Amino acid sequence: MSKKIYEVVDKLPKGGLTVRALKSLDTFVPGQWDNLVGFDNTIKVVTGETDEAMIQAIGERAVALFNDKKQGYQTALWLYETVDSASGLLGTAALANRIGQDTFLGFLKNISPKPEQAQTIDLAVKLVTEVVAFCKISGIPGDSLGDFLTALGDYSSESLVRMAALVSFDGIIPLGAEFSTKALNAIKGMSPSDIESNQTFKGIKNEIPGNDSKGKLSFMTESFESTKGWMDTFVADKGITQSGLLDNLGGFIEGSRGKLDYLGAFLDMSVKYYEHTGTQTLARRLIERAVAEL
User: What is the Cα–Cα distance from 115 to 244, expressed in whole angstroms?
Assistant: First the structure.
């Protein structure tokens, strides 16, 4: 990978649709997410360090860890980036530029609503991405589902907001309040051929545990079934509802309330929450490890 982690963190957007969509979740997870941008700034916030020489040393160690191909950090970043780009493979720039100029209804003709099966597979693949990326960052086998579930209970800041975005933007909005039950039942009824044609699955399939599509579908099903209880409790405890989400998003996506299928497709295209918060999580973990090793 030719990417430099400090450049990726430095280039994270300070505004735009992704940031506004993530900030709309503050109603449900108040105070959990500040849009932490800039590599040196992230080091200062994460560590509380003010000495410039120490900040530089931490940064150099974090960069060295990221560049070490024996570690899983580069793969984790690739997963976060790829699952977002695979999920919204339409030309989004022109649509994004029209926010504030037209109502949401003004460009519906440019969007095709996503079939429910495709939306369900997207949701399951994104959840598996979280599992595998966590394992890569933690340096453990990619199918360590038990370790992930234990860690999930302690999720906070950008990691917790990423899960909030997952259940909200890929679950509740397109699939409804019973999204987890509906999705799990659908996944259990799928065959390997159902997922093989899905663009999001194809984007990251080589990193999903399993020897073939049948094995990968089995791991997706197990991951979703194991995480369903956490998702249901999280949604209930935080009071996340479709109506509440639409109220918050309506502040900058006009006309979205009556067009949930289109809204789900639009969010897929325009809101890159996995890449954004995933980069922030990766930077945080690199910095924490760098400090521990210095």
Answer: 24
Question: pTM above the 0.85 mark?
Answer: yes
C-beta pairs of 282-285 under 8 Å, 24+ apart in sequence: 282/5, 282/66, 282/73, 282/76, 282/77, 282/80, 282/137, 283/5, 283/9, 283/36, 283/39, 283/42, 283/46, 283/62, 284/36, 284/42, 284/46, 284/157, 284/158, 285/73, 285/137
CA-wise closest residue to 161 among 280, 287, 12, 286: 280
d(CA 31, CA 29): 6
Beta bridge partner(s), residue 102 = 99
Q: Where are the alpha helices (DSSP H) in the chain?
A: 5-10, 17-23, 39-47, 52-67, 73-87, 93-97, 116-138, 145-152, 157-167, 173-175, 179-188, 192-196, 199-204, 213-238, 242-249, 260-270, 273-293
pLDDT at 227: 96
Cα 85 to Cα 17, 42, 78, 218: the distances in Å are 15, 25, 10, 24
Q: Which residues of the chain fall short of a pLDDT of 70?
A: 1-2, 86-114, 252-262
How does pLDDT run across 235-263, given as a tens digit for each residue?
999 999 999 998 888 776 665 566 666 67
Tokens of 171: 């679950």
Phi-psi region of 14 (alpha: psi -120 to 50; beta: other; left: phi over 0): alpha
